[in-house]
Amino acid sequence: MVKIKIDGVEYEVDEKKNLIDATKEVGVEIPYFCYHPALSIVGMCRMCLIEIEGVPRLQAACNTPVKEGMGIITKSDRVKEARAGTMEFLLANHPLDCPVCDKAGECRLQDNAFGSGSGHSRFEFDKRNIPQEEIGTNLIINHNRCIVCYRCVRFEEEKVGESNLGLFERGNHSIIGLAKSEPIDHNYQGALADICPVGALLNNKTLFKSRVWWYKSHKSVCHGCSTGCNVTTNVRDNKMYRYMVRENYDQGMFFLCDKGRFDLDWMNQNRLHSYLEAGNPSTSKEVISKIADRMREAKSIAVLGGAHESNETLESLKKGFELVARELGGKSIQWESRVTDAQNKETEQVDFLLTKDNHPNTKGAVDLGITTTSGISGIVNAVKSGAIDLVFVLKESIPEGIDPAKVISFDTNLTDAARNASLAAPIQIFAESAGSFTNKNGLRQNFEQSMNPIKGLLTVAGVVDLIFQKLTEKVEASVGNR
Prior knowledge:
InterPro entries: 2Fe-2S_ferredoxin-like_sf, 2Fe-2S_ferredoxin-type, Mopterin_OxRdtase_4Fe-4S_dom, NADH_UbQ_OxRdtase_75kDa_su_CS, NADH_UbQ_OxRdtase_ferredoxin, NADH_UbQ_OxRdtase_Gsu_4Fe4S-bd, Prok_molybdopt-oxidoreductase. Its cofactor is [4Fe-4S] cluster; [2Fe-2S] cluster. By secondary structure, this protein is of the alpha+beta class. The chain has helices spanning about 20-25, 75-90, 110-115, 150-160, 190-195, 260, 265-270, 285-295, 310-325, 360-365, 375-385, 415-420, 460-470; strands spanning about 1-5, 10-15, 50, 60, 70-75, 135, 140, 165-170, 175-180, 200, 215-220, 230-235, 240-245, 275, 280, 300-305, 335, 390-395, 405-410, 425, 435-440, 445. Helices cover about 25% and strands about 20% of the residues. It has a seven-stranded mixed beta sheet, sandwiched between helices. The mean pLDDT is about 95.
């Protein structure tokens, strides 16, 4: 840590950071466009100009390291004039699209124009007009809005490892465009739109869906794989609309892949809201009663899955099954949370964020000890041999080789497993309650409740609690007159 002066006030800041990040930590914001903490520094936008005591010219804060005793000025007349001039140049050709632009409300150009702009333009010529293009399978570029910050080009080259985009022409004619004949088709088109500070890059999947100020936002963790990227959920009318990156400087989390970002429809559609018997709607009373009877009659029971659930739900569920086992006279209940090959191996990356394990809480389940030595193959073989005659499947597919007639499914959606199982119970999705996931590195991360479950819909632990209550239910003997 070193001491520096910011606008005459002394602060202690991290010497390893540049001025933009260091000042932000102490509550002083320096405006910028092209800078990103996880990308190389290019100093293209000239928005972050500041004065440094003893240096005659204005300097770019993004490219200036912190030094002991440094004195900087962020609000002088010179600095304000320079930033206003930068904004005037950037807005010379930028269209007044805010009423129809999807970036409105979270646009850095809007923020900086309001905070540092002059309020009027001296540009009297016609703005340039370049047709919008589809440059990816889920990516649109609006050249008129682009301010050539070069963030998208740097992100692709430095993080994705591809060079699909480039800067073409010069001066007033400069545009960002495709450097290849094929459209972009990688797993980070959402991230390209996300890091664009203006509304130049947009995704087809979210285009014109909602205004950002209509959302209710909560801190959460991506469910798409075992990486556990930090996200902000955007919910409207109790439906999940978007995942947006929630930057975590300490863990180096700044991006989100498309698989996690856009895998949201299942939260809003095809939900399982009724108990099922042989694929047909039934009542909770009938299904819970039959599950209890099946557990009493079973020789041995297996539970498969659970790595989609939070640590808190798994802990409650483990206690619930232990109580059930004791109530059944110590009957064996084996639980294997690892149902895929990827869960049984060391973490394998698909790309720089996405892993092959599409469960957000495999590590949490393993740490809790809900695994077997024989693995899922051992349980399947035991079911085939008849040693296990009842299997609970928690939000997973029914493994090949297991007779669906022996299966009881707990699921959030009307899946093939729920339809084919002998009995099925609806459960909450993780976003309908608060909790935590443990990612591939063993980092336990909390998430907030983002959505409200429909009345009566329980967590999987809540359903097992109902089963336990049914097992311990005492039937009163009727007494009549003699």
